[in-house]
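User: My collaborator sent over this chain with a note saying "see what the structure looks like." That's all I know about it. Can you take a look?
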Amino acid sequence: MRLSPKGAMFETKGAMCFPSSEDMHDVLAFANTKIVNRLLLALSPTLDFHEGPVGRLPVKLADGAGALAQRCVELARLDWDGYETSWDFTSLRLLSSDHGAETLEATYARLRAHWRGMTDELQRLEEENNRIFIEAYGLQDELTAAVPIEEITLTCNPAHRYGGNKTEAELENLLRADTMREFVSYAVGCMFGRYGLDSPGLILGSQGDGIEDYLNRVPDPTFPPDVDNVIPMLDGEWFPDDITERFRKFLRVTFGEARFQENLAFIEEALGKKLRSYFLRDFYADHIKRYKKRPIYWLFSSPKGTFNALIYMHRYRPDTVSVVLNEYLREFRNKLEGHRRAQEALSISGEASPAQKTKALKEIETTSRQIEEIDAWERDVLFPLATQKIEIDLDDGVKANYPKFGAALKPIKGLGEADD
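Assistant: Without extra context I'll predict from the sequence alone. Here is the result:
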């Protein structure tokens, strides 16, 4: 059982019980013992633990258990609030001064040691809690107090988070990779002004928030957010402020210039690919997964992915599509056209080698197809959409608002499914 905050909702498949405030943690301690697990298996063979079986449990409170439960709750809350999907998220643990070191790798090592300490403490507390109640019920011959590490339900515990038949090295690699993905996600949040390095918690989180609202909160930001709420995400350095370059700047701001290449290499090794490749192929899928098919960043993407640009839904305005079209898509097309002309000149240059000419001809063909793709997308999708100046209401949710933009946005499989 878990402690729910005041005002939480429940229904028949996720019922709640309401002990007196004085007994709250004592009852919670009892409910999370091996004894209760064994009793419920006997009282409710269908594993449907509704109020009937729970109401028939022979409750016997034990001295000292409530304090143990309270500390367990604190540890669980510390863990949960370290991730941006928590309502009470304030800042990324990786950037906490408590774990700071000269390099990102050393900082991660300190954070990992802290997480290991949290996991070990919670395991010890749960085993002590079991021991107290096993002795109180006289069940020493029936039950042991031991709790396997994979049952310590902290997100920072890789044995629980990933489970399965994995080696220690595999678990550590998965945790390090996910921690770097969370670092990248937080950086993107700072790019859009959702978060900031100078102010804890959510900064821009209301409909229509803009750069002015951010600067009112943070007049002199260490890492300024994007001004127009459009960040291109392309296969190449077509814009000086695209998402890859912005992340590089974020890494320099947070971990310094001196060890920048070393820190970047650590991230790319953890991700298993170059940074730009991660943004193009994996970032948005990770974002959709993190937010359970209800993304807060929306990806404008041409059919074959030649053009991609992210926006932050809370900063969306009716002219945002026009900004994507005029300031980015058409500018990108002009850059592609210039690139094609340069390759055409190279293909007929007397100074170019045969290999260079062959490569140039292939590049001309590829670029021409890309131009045709984005021309058709602009004509059929983005330009008509820009003229509509669509309004959205955040209260309607992503499920209702995302489809309004049709083929302009990256499709999300399962978007129309019922919310969890």
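A starting point for your reply to your collaborator: The radius of gyration is 27 Å.
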